[in-house]
Design brief:
The chain is of the alpha/beta class and 419 residues long. The strands form 2 sheets. Strands 9-8-7-6-10-11-12 form a 7-stranded mixed β-sheet, with helices on both faces. Strands 1-2-4-3-5 form a 5-stranded mixed β-sheet. The longest helix has 26 residues. The chain is globular, with a radius of gyration of 21 Å. The relative contact order is 0.13.
């Protein structure tokens, strides 16, 4: 009897990218399997008490992909689509992202399958604390350092830090990053991913000879990454003409007032209904005839179904895995300059590293030092990837992945196999 072909997952895309790196670097199938297989996975049940007194069981995950370069590092997301395959992919991409920036980390990722909008703040605190207690045996400042991601915030990290600290009997600021500044967080961490996306927008425009002043762009997603990226772009003179969120999209060809839109979203919770723009089909935000599009929401939004319709010459991936394998092949065929996620959105993990260092030293940096160091390190990574891509005549995504995989593999080879 015929069965439907299984749907491709983000982890399939991640493994295909790794396979492409294998073709270029020539390492063995055994080494491929080692790099493709997460070192440790934990699936946990999260029973919580709802505010009405009822009990519900949620499901959470933590995947540690690689430890060859140091302790694992990666965010925690609260989202309805979270499953083990997604978390595996995100953990692998974190390994490459950390290696690309030269950070002494391996990759990890975690999440809870939950729609946060349907839970009270008190319920979300109970979810975060119980999730932390369930994964507590495998996290720690020398083992695995979580951070916020989609659906989580610095408040969630404060709960995580407190839960871990209560367990061990003393305060451990270094157990996670993305914390409030008052609890050992770093200045510049909140906007670090957005700022990094902007650095890559600026670099890509310069590469193609497009003047930033008067350039046009769109941003899919108006959360902590998309909102900040849109603001940095607008301040630099880029006209952001369309923005979407989970509820809809708005457009103004003269450029959206990002500050005013932010106030509207703070008041209403959504971009639709903003008086300074007209509503549009959210699916078209990535397809407008502009200079740069920034997918900054979730994975797999540019696919074989719409990649041919992408008109912008530049795509800067603010989200993790927003372009699937088939969509990416089409963008490359059409000559698009795609700045891959492991480079474009790496500002968050970079400043998380700075936070981790500050927490361990109990000595904190000013904002200028944080952001100057972020720009220097990200532009160094951009230069390395761009030069390698030109030398090998390969796309930026392949160049970034190859450079990262080579560094992780080299670290593993130097350490050797145990026993």
């Amino acid at each position: 009897m015929a069965t439907d072909k299984p749907t491709r997952t983000p982890f399939d895309d991640a493994k295909d990218q790794l396979r492409k790196a294998q073709e270029i670097l020539g390492f063995s199938d055994g080494q491929y399997e080692m790099l493709a297989t997460p070192r440790r996975e934990m699936a946990v049940a999260i029973p919580i008490r709802r505010d009405d007194g009822s009990t519900e069981v949620l499901h959470g995950y933590r995947v540690q992909h690689n430890f060859s370069r140091g302790p694992a590092k990666g965010g925690i997301r609260f989202a309805p689509q979270v499953d083990l395959e997604e978390v595996r992919a995100l953990a692998m991409w974190m390994s490459w992202k950390c290696a690309l920036l030269g950070l002494p980390y391996g990759g990890a990722k975690g999440g809870v399958t939950i729609d946060p909008s349907k839970y009270s703040q008190a319920e979300l605190e109970r979810v975060m604390r119980r999730y932390t207690s369930e994964i507590l045996p495998i996290i720690g400042p020398e083992k695995d350092i979580p951070a916020p991601d989609v659906g989580t915030s610095e408040q969630h990290m404060a709960w995580m830090m407190d839960t871990y600290s209560q367990s061990v009997g003393y305060t451990v600021p270094g157990v996670c990053t993305g914390k409030p500044v008052e609890l050992g967080g770093s200045l510049g961490r909140a906007e670090s991913t957005s700022l990094g996306v902007f650095f890559m927008v600026k670099a890509a425009l310069k590469k193609l000879g497009i003047n930033m002043e008067g350039a046009t762009g769109t941003v899919q997603g108006f959360g902590k990454v998309g909102r900040g990226a849109a603001a940095f772009m607008a301040r630099a003179g880029i006209k952001v003409v369309a923005i979407s969120d989970v509820y809809g999209a708005v457009r103004n060809d003269e450029g959206i007032d990002i500050e005013a839109l932010g106030k509207h979203v703070d008041e209403t919770g959504k971009v639709v209904g903003f008086s300074g723009a007209t509503e549009m089909d959210p699916a078209d935000v990535l397809l407008l005839d502009v200079d740069v599009v920034v997918p900054a929401a979730i994975e797999s939004v540019i696919t074989a179904a719409n990649a041919e319709k992408v008109k912008a010459p530049i795509v800067v991936e603010g989200a993790n895995g927003p372009t699937d394998f088939a969509g990416d092949a089409i963008l490359v065929k059409n000559g698009k300059l795609v700045v891959p996620d492991i480079l474009a959105n790496s500002g968050g993990v970079l400043v998380s590293y700075y936070e981790w260092v500050q927490s361990r030293d109990n000595f904190f940096w000013d904002l200028k030092r944080v952001q100057e160091n972020q720009e220097i390190r990200m532009m160094k990574a951009w230069k390395e990837v761009d030069e390698y891509a030109a030398k090998k005549q390969i796309p930026l995504r392949v160049a970034a992945t190859v450079l990262s995989v080579e560094r992780v593999l080299h670290a593993h080879q130097m350490r050797g196999l145990y026993p």
